[in-house]
Specification:
Blueprint lengths: L5 E6 L9 H18 L3 E4 L13 H11 L4 E4 L2 E2 L5 H14 L4 E6 L6 H6 L10 H13 L16 E4 L4 H8 L2 E5 L13 H9 L11 E9 L3 H21 L18 H12 L1 E4 L1 H15 L3 E5 L5 H17 L5 H7 L5
Parallel strand pairs: 1-2, 1-10, 2-3, 3-5, 4-5, 5-6, 6-7, 7-8, 8-9, 8-10
Helix pairs in contact: 1-2, 1-11, 1-12, 3-5, 6-7, 8-9, 10-11
């Protein structure tokens, strides 16, 4: 078994109890700098509106800040939610970023709407807007490649690669459009009797080559944490797992809180079950344990690339996890060992 060819990071800009929300954005920038130093291929950010536990609401702005602080790592969105925007505006944002940072910009797109009715109203959209996703995507691609009736400015010699988040019908849309697909969550762990992921098998079978991608490209997103012990790695994932579990009861995804050894304290049986379910679809442990789990995941999914997700309250622990995970790929010849050595022990 072998690891995916490349490894990247998606940071949702989690806020943390006791710290101002702006700290979350500055920590995203710091993490991107470290990710570049130790050899990660991409660094992506997400779009969430009016969520107390997440500060990342405008991917294009955060992408610009990250690209300005880094030099070589690819910077992208995972993703911009197309139903919330006019396709022309998204195309202009991507074109502007590509002009400023040629050959470094990725455009990941999703079809999800705001979490609540109030947010959807504020965004001027409704549940039916997600059904326009394929048409909006086709329009957006036309703007980017210059085949639409309107020419996006600035024009660039290079085009940012386009990825589709595999929510709802996203995986089929990606196949028809000849785009890369991003699959995450529990679906990544739902192998059939043959040990394969049916959705990915369908994507590869239906894929139509395009100017964007000549062959199917699968980016698998999964929560990953590496620590000196399995318990230490688990503790990095627990705050987000608990926040997610409680959001199903309260309707609000809150800022991450520190978690002690009494991890189940104060959780209802339903919330505790949700935490366990979240951990069951995550990968964590020592470097050796995580490597084995990632090799198994690669065999099941055939992933071309791994996208590391999962937010931690413990910033230093998360930095160490990123470094250790980079070391796993570096030792396999999948990463730039010179970049890893440049990082040394500097995790600040």
């Amino acid at each position: 078994m072998s690891l995916p060819a490349r490894i990247s990071i998606l940071d949702r800009a989690n806020t943390r109890v006791g710290f101002p929300p702006s700290d979350a954005l500055h920590l995203v920038l710091d993490r991107a700098v470290l990710a570049e130093e130790v050899g990660y291929h991409r660094f992506w950010v997400a779009e969430h509106h009016a969520v107390p536990g997440i500060a990342g609401s405008v991917p294009a702005v955060l992408m610009a800040a990250i690209a300005g602080r880094t030099h070589s790592i690819r910077v992208g969105s995972g993703g911009i939610m197309l139903p919330n925007h006019q396709p022309l505006v998204v195309a202009e944002q991507a074109a502007t970023l590509e002009a400023l940072h040629p050959g470094r910009i990725d455009l990941g797109l999703g079809r999800s709407l705001g979490f609540t009715q109030a947010v959807r109203q504020a965004l001027r959209n409704g549940k039916l807007d997600a059904e326009r996703f394929e048409d909006d995507l086709t329009e957006l691609l036309g703007y980017l490649c210059g085949s639409a009736s309107v020419t996006v400015r600035p024009r660039n010699a290079s085009l940012p690669p386009v990825f589709v988040l595999a929510t709802g019908s996203g995986i089929d849309v990606a196949a028809r459009a000849g785009l890369a697909v991003v699959l995450g969550g529990p679906a990544v762990f739902r192998a059939d009797q043959r040990g394969k992921i049916q959705a990915l098998e369908r994507y590869r079978a239906q894929f139509r080559p395009s100017r964007w991608f000549a062959e199917p490209f699968v980016l698998v997103a999964v929560n990953v944490a590496v620590g000196s012990s399995r318990d230490d790695a688990r503790d990095l994932l627990l705050p987000e797992a608990i926040a997610l579990a409680r959001s199903r009861t309260t309707g609000e995804f809150a800022a991450l809180a520190p978690v002690g050894r009494a991890q189940g304290s104060g959780l209802t049986p339903r919330e505790l079950a949700a935490v366990q379910s979240s951990l069951a679809t995550s990968i964590y442990g020592t470097a050796a344990e995580v490597r084995h789990q990632l090799e198994s995941l690669a065999e099941t999914t055939g992933a071309d690339e791994l996208l590391v997700t999962g937010g931690a309250f413990d910033v230093a622990g998360q930095s160490e996890s990123d470094r250790l995970l980079a070391g796993i790929f570096s030792s396999s010849g999948h990463m730039d060992t010179e970049s890893l050595s440049r990082a040394g022990q500097g995790l600040r």
